Amino acid sequence: MKREILCTISALPYRQPIPVYGFRFGSGDKTLAVMGAIRGDEFQQMYTAARLIQRLEKLESDGALSAGILVVPCMAQFSMNVSRRFWPLDNTDINRMFPGYADGETTQRLAHRIFQALQGYQWGIHLTSFYLSGDFVPHVRIMETGFQKDEAGLDFGLPYLVIRSPHPYDTVTLNYNWQIWGTNTFSLYTRATRDIEPGSAEVAVESILRFLHRYGLSSEEVPEGCKSVCVNESQMVAIGSSSAGILLPQKHPGDKVAAGEMVASILDPYTAKPCEEIRSPVDGTIFFFRHAQILSERTIVCRIIPQNNS
Amino acid sequence: MIETVVSAQLPVGEELAIQKNRIEGAEPDSRRIAVVTGTHGDELEGQYVAWKLARLLEQKRKILHGTVDIYPALNPLGISTIYRGLPGFDLDMNRIFPGSRTETMNEYIADGIVRDIAGADLCIDIHASNIFLREIPQIRINEKSVDQLMPFAKLLNMDFVWVHGATTVLESTLAYSLNDIGTPTLVVEMGVGMRITERYGNQLIYGIFSVMNELGMLDEPAIPVQPPIVSTDGHVGFVNASESGIFLPRVSHADRVEQGQTIGIVSNPFTGEISEKLLSPLSGMVFTLREYPIVNEGSLIARVLGGVAK
Asked: Which is nearest to A49 in space by CA: A29, A28, A21?
């Protein structure tokens, strides 16, 4: 393992320079790059990358790797150390600045530097979080850019492979641009973002090692994993709230539901009396559930993969 | 008359209502313009315009034909919390248009706003830069809409019209969404965040009356306006800081500068040294100048419009 400084975040004179570290394993080939936390609350993503580094170090010392791998556990130190999700000075999101711009504004420059370090790899994995706070079934997500290799996403052995048609705001993310620039890219979602969940991190690490093994890049056997189901995001059923108040979930990501079954209730914030029972319109599996104590009217509560897709 | 455009219940005993002031003259259905502002909660220049325009139109009601809708606050929660974005939501409000009726409350609100403005003869979307930069009164037009919008832009009494390149991420702005459905929409940028520059507001109101004259909405002689400077991306030079520190300007906003002239310095309060001298890349007018002194590497310092003589 080689630890090197990929770039430095400088905000002198009152913050000290912050190195962004890359951990290199195996050969000098650009086979796989894994990007961890870009936002300041992606603790789970940083932790997952750190656990991956531990495992790769062992594989390398055992002589089991036949690939060149780069892992960047975190480039969000400047925000993370002050409990902010985005760049603290102007609240911009580095993951909405790709491919970056060398002569641009601060977060455009940072995106450019990390993008330069991640360029040229055959495979790319971004451990990331969603723009709405919530919990997912662990899955791999591929942006439909026209360049993507959907079938490779099945090789992680996670429960689902989700294909997303990009919205305009997706076109400035790492995933989208990495793919446009020729790297086969996957976003890998574990259950959590702000909370450290060792079990879910392990699922993600195992899935990456499984992917390496399936492509002959690691000789270490990894348990088979799931037979992934490929789902287009547009096939999922979004269930929203018709009233506002306290959100009381009745189900969790991964739970099976029957049509008509209650998935959550909304309680009056002053009396705790139910003002809405939110029921599934279909048989299926809960894929995403909002993480919120209180909820506005007309807001998504969960997404369900209908049974014929799950 | 104050009307609610779209509303939704917030979690705890409060309604979020987007409201407009509808001012009707004779034949109210004959013409309609929409004046909107407050998408970003830290941009307050439009507040003065909304207030003054409402007052003046009351005085002009007898000579008014058609309808003027004034929307002073598209993002009331942002304005009330001194927050640029949508509180508790990752995406910038001006990146979620045309909205959605099935995703989140904020997207539902965006959808309601677009539906309400749609069909107007003209929409004027007033912005005020942010807290970091001061702008001269200007209009920004996507190159895709230039033929349709330029005649209106030239009437609006602004100093400068900037025709900028089309990028996919900007397809989720209010202006793009409205132009896309055939409602001509101009974006005004002027002043600075968290402040009000009354003279800029008065200049714009004069332009709004000029446009209303052109549309036959005011029974009074047409108001002559100064033609703006029209420019494209190719005529604009950017100055970004290469060092972090404290920015001190050495020119005034809207000054004419020569190529190589010092626009400002980045100072180091620890050492008394000048970390960087920031020079103009071309001769022209400083139409954007940094207002907020703290800069990081990459922070935008100035934009210079080339070819504007002293």
From this structure: A21
